[in-house]
Automatic annotation (TrEMBL):
Membrane-spanning parts: 20-37
Gene3D superfamilies tied to this protein: 1.50.10.140
Keyword field: Membrane, Transmembrane, Transmembrane helix
InterPro entries: DUF3131 (IPR021478)
Annotated protein name in UniProt: DUF3131 domain-containing protein
A Pfam cross-reference name: DUF3131
Amino acid sequence: MTEHNNKQQIWTRRPVRIGLAWLTGILLATGIIYAITQTAPTPHQTGSVWSLLSSSNSASRNDTFCALAQAPDNSCLGNPQGLCSKDLEMAKVAWKYFENNYNPKTGLYNAADKYQSTTMWDTGSALAATIAAHDFGLIDEKDFDERIQAMFKTLTTMELFNKEAPNKVYHAGTGAMVDYRNQPAPDGIGVSALDLARIISWLNTLGCMHPKYAYPAKKAVERWDLTRLIKDGQMFGLYRDPATKAMVVAQEGRLGYEQYAGKIFRELGYDQRVSATYNNEFRETINIYDVPVAYDRRDPRDLGAYNYVVTESYAMDAVENGIDAENQPLLANIYQVQKRRWEETGVITAVSEDNIDQKPYFLYNTIFTAGLPWNTTTDKGVRYDNLKTISVKAAMSMALLFPDDPYSKQLAYTVNTAYDPERGWYSGIYENGGGYNKAITANTNGIILSLLLHKKYGEFYPTCKRCQRGMKLDVAKTQTCDACAVK
């Protein structure tokens, strides 16, 4: 009896009951799991994310990152023309400049070799070069994205002149506003509307060829207040009067560069009824070697700006904005008059503004300026005819745009060795036998890469409009005249 009672007490103790309950639960759960595993489908039989990532049988998957991470469909850009081995050799030399002069902290490139200063114009040229380098396979997708992302970080945070628009000059290494001597200028020195147009043009092409950057490009430009810069059908620059420090708003652009930039702002929806057409009230014509050459009649004594008739502005207008009924004859005459000088004098002629490797370090080598043909001058009107050069970017531009003319062969042959394989293309060759002009710049090398990109795809703005990928700004106030056709 006592033994029976002890057994009863053992079974009725609480810890024993709890332990038995746990054991029963474990046995039951084990049975359920076993039953499920005998009937449930494997992960490869389901449509889960797991099946996409873990399956080794590609036939059982609908898609993978192999397909998802592909570049966008750019078939709307047309049928790209193949580049020859010489084209790619030229591209590699030009890209060498940008490899040597990149500032990863800011994403900016030096405007001149090893000199950490840049402008929005030169940043536009560098952006053109980066787009081309990726397209030609000189840099991979990772390198391209890192460079573009770094540049956007600077463009969206950089200090603006008077909180309106980018300063004329920035330190390429720090992104700080500087003056033309690359010295700190906390208040900035001014704004160039022409420079802004240059970078807008290539931000537009970037967003067109790489749609993932269309929105960042748009937001970078929308930081700017263009109210005082684009008005009354024209463009205006800003600067502080050196004596009074008062803000000055001055009309900017002369025939050639004015139309190149004016068309770019017109594409954004701004009123450019004066600046976007070569047939405005300021156009005049002079005959040089019996070739009619258009120039701007505005007096530099009134507004302090000369009209430099050079190759670059007309070539860039054709390459980026496209050739039309208005600019085609003007471009043809720019080519023809330089060819005629060669025929008459034996001097290979391809003129533009360029850095040079000696004082005064920058010259406008022109077809016509300040009443004089073939004038080589500073921006102050001081002549340096002994430093005339054959401009590499001008020679290559004309050779690309007029490939069937025999003179283009002369141009290409003359400048095809004007480079340092470890530094990039030189700016030019001195006409008088003074050797190479060994100044090396972002603009020359950027233009060469953009010319090759044009050879592959054609005119950039018309192509991007066909793709319906052009930049559209929320802040642009479209005027009725913006829809007017160019006559």
